[in-house]
Amino acid sequence: MAEMEKELRELVESRDEIFEEARDLRRRSQSVMRRIHAGDRLLREYEALPGIARRLVERARPARLLEEEPVQTALQEWVEASLLRAVVMGRSLPTPPSLFVGAVPYLLGLSDLVGELRRLAVTSLGKGAPERAEAQVRQMDDILAILMHFEAPRSVIALKPKQDTARSLLEKTRGEVAMALYLQSIVRKGGSKGPEKRR
Fold it and tell me: Helices marked H in the chain — which ranges?
């Protein structure tokens, strides 16, 4: 009994440590995304994340905790932060192996990237840069095309709701950008003509 109690205690302690590492990765990833939207492009805070993500995966896999919700959520946020960083730096999107993850957290993180791109597009519109927002809409469109390529049972990955949300965000943002571009074209032409005066 003493040996079994010791083994169980060690398993619980290991599980708690791994879940705490997952929460740390999630918090740091969310912080990076907030910093990006605040205009920080140096992102020194990001430099520690690859090591934390690698360690989490290396510890969670043999402990059979890789599929547990806290770990999967953390990896999804890590993927999202990494993809967003690549976008704002004008780089190619990192691959799943380069982020130490499989298809599920990668696709879920990629789905959420659409929402982050919408935030960037709205910011661009607020700064009077609809052309930049239009480019971000094209990126959203490209990502949705990738997402729509995949189909799997919900028990494997809850991708369908993410696809629907991404499509809705894309159409909403596309409409806003189109209107901004239209208004900009009117301003550049000197404004629209007012109503004719009655004689």
Answer: 2-37, 49-60, 69-88, 103-126, 130-147, 159-188
Range 58-74 average pLDDT: 94
User: How far lies 99's CA from each of 53, 71, 76, 162, in Å?
Assistant: 8, 14, 10, 21
Q: What is the pTM of this model?
A: 0.89
Does residue 49 contact residue 29 with C-beta atoms inside 8 Å? yes
CATH code of 8-101, in short, is 1.20.58.2140
Q: How far apart are CA 149 and CA 93, in angstroms?
A: 17
**Residue where the block lists tokens 């189909």:** 151
pLDDT, averaged across the chain: 92
In the chain, what percentage of residues exceed pLDDT 70? 95
Class of domain 103-189 (CATH, top level): mainly alpha
- Which are the contacts of 98, defined by CB distance < 8 A and separation ≥ 6? none
103-189 shares the fold of 8-101: yes
Residue 191 CA to its chain's centroid (Å): 39
- Residue 133 CA to residue 181 CA, distance in Å, equals 10
- Condensed to tens digits (0 to 9), the pLDDT of residues 45-55 reads 899 999 999 99
Map out the domains of the chain as residue ranges.
8-101, 103-189
